[in-house]
Each structure stands twice: as C-alpha cells, then as structure tokens.
Amino acid sequence: MRDYGIDKDTVEKQVLDAIFRVIDKIKNEKEMGKSEHSIDREVDLMTGSIINQIMLGFSFYGERFKEFSGLKQLLDIQQVYFISFWSLLIEMSPWIRHIPIYVKHFYNYGKKATESLFEYSQKEIEKRIEARKDPNYLPEEGMDVLDQFLESVEETDQNDPENYYKVKYLTAFVYDMFLAGQETTSNTINFLILYLMLDQSSQEKLQNELDKVMEEKRGVAEETGEEFDGKFRQSDPNKDVKIGGHNLKAGTVVIPQISTVLFDERIFPDPEKFIPERFLDENGQFKKIEENIPFGVGKSCVGEALARMELFLFTANFFYKFHVYPPNPLNPPKYEKRQTFAVKLPDYNCSVELRN
C-alpha cells in the first residue's frame, strides 16, 4: 500500500474512525435500552468500509449502506456456491457446463453473483476514469489506491507486455482486494468476540492487561508492530514440480490447506479449544510458534499488515470499552462452524456492559 502513496498513519486513522463508529453505535443502542446487539453485522460493515475507503475512497456509512448490504449478500451467495455440489462437479467434469440444468443452477446462483460483483467494481472504475478527465479533478479525501493505479496507467508504457498497470486488470484487482480485505478480517473478529463471550475468564484477563497499559483517552493507536508494508509481489510457479507423488505443471494454481497445520495436535494440543495462553511463555510474554501461519508462508500476504492493524486496534479499543456476555447465560450462542469458502459462524447476538 505504501507504494501507492497510502501511508500507515492515514490507514490507522481510517481504521480507528471505523472502530469507534462501532463502539458509538453500541453505546447509543445501550442508552436507548437495547439489551442485545448484533455486533457481527457492525463488524462486517466496519471492515467493508475500511478496505473500500482505501481502495475506492469512500465508506459504506449513511446513504451507501444499501450498497454494502447488496454486496455482502452477493459475497455470501458466492461463498456458499464455491463449495456446493455444482461447483465441485464442474471442477471434475468441465463438459457439464453445457447441460441446461447446470446452466440453470450455476449461472443463476453462483456465476451471476460473481458477475454482479465484478460489474460493481467496473462501474466504480469507469466513474473514476471519467472524473479524472476533468483537468481540475481533485480526490475528495486524498489519493486512494484506485487513483494511484490510474495515475500509474497514465505514466507507463501500455504497450509493454511486462507492465501490469493496465485498466484491463483493475476490475479483478479491486474485486480481489475487497473480498480479501472484508471477509477474512470480519470473520476473525467475529470468532474472537464469540470466543471471549463464551470464555469469561480469558476476557477478564485481556481486560486486566488492557487496564494496565491503556490510559484514559479516545483510543489506543498502534505504536508497535511491523511497518505497514503491503507491497504487491508477483509469485507465479515457473517450473514443473512433484509434490507428494503428484506432478504439477508450471503455472498450476495451488491453494494451501492451512488448517491442516493450524489443527495439528502435535503442534497445537486441543486445537478446537480457545487457549490464548498457548502463545505465551512462562513469563507471560508472546511466544512465537513458527507453525502459526494464518497468513500463509513465503512472500508476504498483501493484506497482512492491514489485517493485523485492524485486529489489534479493534480488540484493544472494543474490549477496553465493553465487557461482552451472552444475552441468556443459560442458553448462550453455540460455537458452530458454517462451511462456506471459508469457515464462518452463524449470526449471533451478545449483551455488553460499558467499562470505561
């Protein structure tokens, strides 16, 4: 992101603004007498607004909320379809795409959702290209990634086959960044809230630590951690390889099954249990476990720095302000995995107490 003129301080401010929208929304609901809150939905909106602000220069609050609701619905349809019978069938037998019943189920359900998401990205790109034709054009809130990309398009040789700054790549680029920047972080935060709601002891330990290190102020900023350096690195397989007895041709797309490592009991005993202490040494300091690879291995994940920033700032600020507990302690929300393209949770509500 830094290569596109998006510095860490700017992003941190946008992240904090979005986080405090969630906090203020929950506080307002409390003041109005509401006893249960759909924090997971607020987190969805928060993460979607953050990545869209960075990419396209606007959030989804206010009048644009309906846009986000539509996009989220399309994403949900798409992710369910990715692991559906029809999707798996076409992977095994591509010729099936010519059968009418397949066209009915595939196009009207999964493919149509994907096309609609691409159309949304394309529409925003075309609007920006048209706006930039005005010699007096100035971005409303500074240069976003789309503006920076289009500026690079204007400054580079479009006939160079090695040049990736081309408008034809933009639609997929914007779509990929929104999908990766919204779903993954939102999903992680929603798992965290549920885990801490069901494990009051761990939540209290977290809050005791926060009380020790946080002063009374609007919010804590991320003053430690890695430099915000999300460079876009190209990494394509460039030769034939043999892995586990399987021959893979150069250019084959490989998606690692990271969960096989994260749920390996030899490395993480009782992997299904929420045990934060597994990452602490005998002195209570962070213990690095090489096999903990939520962002994969090899060259850095393009969204890792942003995701870490969002996770840290949300956890610190939200749980400093609120204590979260089940609306009905005798019948709390259950930890149930819902399998889509990524493992997700069913919607759930929670109750909160204001701490600070």
Structure in words:
The structure is a single chain. Helix 7 packs parallel to helix 10. This protein is mainly α. It has 2 domains: 283 residues, Cytochrome P450 (Cytochrome p450); 63 residues, no CATH class. A hairpin with a 2-residue loop joins strand 1 and strand 2.
Structural class: mainly alpha
Count of spatially separate domains: 2
Can you say what the CATH homologous superfamily of the largest domain is?
Answer: Cytochrome P450
* Second rung of CATH, namely the architecture of the largest domain: Orthogonal Bundle
CATH topology of the largest domain: Cytochrome p450
In a few lines, what is going on in this structure?
This protein is 49% helix and 5% strand. With 356 residues, it is mainly alpha-helical.
Task: Spell out the blueprint of helices and strands.
Blueprint lengths: L7 H24 L7 H18 L8 H18 L2 H8 L7 H32 L13 H11 L14 H29 L1 H14 L27 E3 L2 E3 L10 H4 L41 H18 E4 L12 E2 L3 E2 L6 E4 L2
Helix pairs in contact: 1-2, 1-10, 2-7, 3-5, 5-7, 7-10
